[in-house]
Please model this.
Amino acid sequence: MAQILTVCRLGTDWVVRDVTGEYYGRSGDINEAIEYARGLASRTGSQVVLSNSAQEYIRSKGTFDPRSS
Model:
């Protein structure tokens, strides 16, 4: 089974959290965090998901970068 990487909030920044609770790719820009997660996922065979707060942020701000999808 593939590991899941979740893009979520950590304070005011966005991070990638793995299933063990470790954080990676901390950034103030959600698109950078998503891009980091995608790169990590391509190396590890993981699946990237967005937390509810990340999904809501993208919908409310319209900041989703198609290069990260």
About this structure: The beta strands are 4-10, 13-17, 23-27, 47-50.
